């Protein structure tokens, strides 16, 4: 998605990399490149002009600020302005039990209306509501059958009337049928035309007037660039659209339509289609999209998710403990538990490039077990042991092991994990973007070993079970990395 736009923006941020301080002239250089990449992505010229003015204003206003580096600062500014450009958006669907309220889909031929009717039905079903489809495209002979195929595939009722001439009557009869079937929401699949023509608009206006749908969505093909924006303008003038669904963003769309359409028409994109399959429809989130476009978004997202985990007060207390160097095993346990919130760690990790393995590990049942073990071990320690695991000698280790029913060696393993992951978790939840980059690097480096079981898969040289000095541990770690790299190569 939007590959060349992404590359262009990366280059713009690159220009500022390594610059220690933000000045008007180096910022200007970065901004010029941001502008260039937007123009090349076919963003509407007026939209680019306004966008750049907003970005510049924010950049100049923020010149003096804080811990971020110039390139990080620019990423952040562009991110915020992109979010403003694309949002706000309310992508809730008006769902009410038994209401048979309606959504009208319209758009040019081949934009993806019928497919999107199916995708929306699927989404609605997933939310526990009952959708119903009406075949109001009487133009194309195969259209009715296409909708029936989708209906059967999804287990969703479809109303159609062979040989009917008037789509308004079909919609009205269809809604009555939907009501009788106890449907919560009805989706009207209307006809498309190759270009906007009066007849199409009149037909849609008549349906709109007769049915008064709760929402009117325009389906546009994201690959058609500014043509999509122009058609959105025309449809909006005729029908007062509630939202746009932009399809085919899985193709080589350059991004111009996506970035321009809201600013030009004031109609927000509500969903995006990212494939031909029925599950390839996503509610449109300006934040998520801005992150995706910037790629750096990975970092923004991780930071945000991590921040959400820990409420402000707790975070301050923890930051204070960290700054005093007293991040304890208890904190570690709490943090790991938070990160285990269903799907969260997997999501955070999946946003980081190259972290698939870690993600899989977090998701598997084994790490569930590991988590329970971790909690058991930490709970069996005294507060002072949690605070300073260095005091845990073999007598203490035996006591803890007895307390939680595990092997003494597993306690040593846990302390190793703590030393390895703890600092990264700290950075993930606090610190500047530079820290987060560092964390990312460290976590990626860590991928070669399973932090829940540092010895897995590698035969350790000199593993006698006796306590190692930090220097010895470092040396061992290096050997282990080397062995793992070798293992990977083979
Ligand atoms: N790659 C991709 N293809 C899509 C997407 N949405 C729809 N399509 C494809 O686009 C083609 C046209 O889709 P339809 O749903 O039939 O389009 P329509 O707007 O109903 O077309 P008419 O009824 O002829 O006006 C089909 O081949 C779909 O599979 C999408 O998000 N990504
Ligand atoms: Mg169709």
* Share of helical residues: 55-70%
Q: Which class do the helix and strand fractions yield?
A: alpha/beta
Number of strands: 8
| Low-confidence sequence ranges | 350-361, 444-466
List the helices and strands and how they pair.
Blueprint: H1 3-16, H2 24-40, H3 45-61, H4 70-86, E1 101-106, H5 113-126, E2 131-136, H6 143-154, E3 157-159, H7 167-180, E4 185-190, H8 198-211, E5 215-221, H9 226-239, E6 243-247, H10 256-265, E7 269-273, E8 281-283, H11 286-294, H12 297-309, H13 312-323, H14 329-339, H15 344-350, H16 356-363, H17 365-379, H18 383-387, H19 394-404, H20 408-429, H21 433-446, H22 470-489
Parallel strand pairs: 1-4, 1-5, 2-3, 2-4, 5-6, 6-7
Antiparallel strand pairs: 7-8
Helix pairs in contact: 1-2, 1-4, 2-3, 3-4, 4-11, 5-6, 7-8, 9-10, 11-12, 14-17, 15-16, 17-19, 19-20, 20-21
This protein binds guanosine-5'-triphosphate and magnesium ion (MG).
Keywords:
binds magnesium ion, eight-stranded mixed sheet, 490 residues, Rossmann fold, 59% helix, 434 Repressor (Amino-terminal Domain), Four Helix Bundle (Hemerythrin (Met), subunit A), binds guanosine-5'-triphosphate
How would you characterize this protein structure?
The chain is α/β, with parallel strands linked by helices and 490 residues long. It folds into four domains: 3-86, SRP54, nucleotide-binding domain (Four Helix Bundle (Hemerythrin (Met), subunit A), Up-down Bundle); 101-285, P-loop containing nucleotide triphosphate hydrolases (Rossmann fold, 3-Layer(aba) Sandwich), CATH 3.40.50.300; 297-455, 434 Repressor (Amino-terminal Domain) (Orthogonal Bundle); 457-490. Helices cover 59% and strands 8% of the residues. It is built from 22 helices and eight strands. It has helices at residues 3-16, 24-40, 45-61, 70-86, 113-126, 143-154, 167-180, 198-211, 226-239, 256-265, 286-294, 297-309, 312-323, 329-339, 344-350, 356-363, 365-379, 383-387, 394-404, 408-429, 433-446, 470-489; strands at residues 101-106, 131-136, 157-159, 185-190, 215-221, 243-247, 269-273, 281-283. The chain binds guanosine-5'-triphosphate and magnesium ion (MG). Magnesium ion binds next to helix 5.
């Amino acid at each position: 998605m939007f590959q060349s736009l992404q590359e262009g923006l990366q280059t713009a941020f690159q220009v500022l990399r390594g610059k220690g301080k933000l000045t008007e002239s180096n910022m200007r250089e970065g901004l010029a490149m941001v502008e260039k990449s937007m123009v090349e992505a076919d963003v509407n010229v007026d939209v680019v002009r306004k966008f750049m003015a907003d970005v510049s204003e924010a950049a100049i206003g923020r010149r003096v600020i804080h811990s971020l580096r110039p390139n990080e600062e620019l990423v952040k500014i562009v991110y915020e302005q992109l979010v403003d450009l694309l949002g706000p958006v309310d992508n809730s669907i008006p769902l009410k039990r038994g209401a048979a309220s309606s959504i009208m889909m319209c758009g040019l031929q081949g934009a993806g209306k019928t497919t999107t009717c199916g995708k929306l039905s699927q989404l609605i079903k997933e939310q526990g509501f009952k959708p119903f489809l009406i075949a109001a495209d009487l133009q194309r002979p195969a259209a009715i059958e296409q909708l029936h195929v989708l209906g059967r595939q999804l287990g969703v009722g479809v109303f159609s009337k062979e040989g009917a001439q008037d789509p308004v009557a079909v919609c009205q009869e269809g809604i009555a049928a939907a009501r009788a079937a106890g449907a919560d929401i009805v989706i009207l699949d209307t006809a498309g035309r190759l270009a906007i023509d009066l007849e199409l608009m009149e037909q849609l206006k008549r349906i709109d007037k007769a049915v008064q749908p709760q929402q009117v969505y325009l389906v546009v093909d994201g690959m058609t660039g500014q043509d999509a924006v122009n058609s959105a303008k025309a449809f909006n003038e005729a029908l007062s659209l509630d939202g746009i669904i932009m399809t085919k963003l899985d193709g080589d769309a350059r991004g111009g339509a996506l970035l321009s359409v809201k600013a030009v028409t004031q109609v927000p994109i509500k969903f995006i289609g990212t494939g031909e399959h029925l599950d390839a429809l996503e509610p449109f989130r300006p934040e998520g999209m801005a992150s995706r476009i910037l790629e750096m978004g990975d970092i923004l997202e991780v930071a945000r998710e991590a921040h959400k985990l820990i409420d402000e007060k707790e975070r301050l207390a923890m930051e204070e403990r960290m700054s005093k160097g007293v991040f304890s095993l208890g904190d570690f346990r709490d943090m790991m538990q938070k990160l285990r919130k269903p799907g969260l760690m997997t999501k955070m990790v999946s946003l980081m490039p190259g972290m698939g393995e870690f993600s899989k590990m977090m998701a598997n049942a084994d790490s569930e077990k590991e988590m329970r073990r971790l909690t058991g071990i930490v709970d069996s320690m005294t507060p002072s042991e949690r605070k300073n695991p260095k005091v845990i000698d073999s007598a203490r280790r035996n006591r803890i092991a007895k307390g939680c029913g595990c092997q003494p060696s597993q306690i040593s393993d846990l302390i190793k994990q703590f030393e390895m992951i703890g600092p990264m978790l700290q950075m993930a939840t606090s610190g500047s973007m530079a820290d987060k980059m560092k964390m990312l690097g460290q976590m990626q480096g860590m991928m070669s070993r399973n932090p829940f079981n540092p010895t897995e898969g590698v035969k350790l040289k000199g593993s006698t079970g006796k306590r190692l000095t930090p220097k010895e541990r470092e040396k061992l770690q290096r050997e282990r990395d080397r062995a793992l790299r070798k293992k990977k190569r083979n």
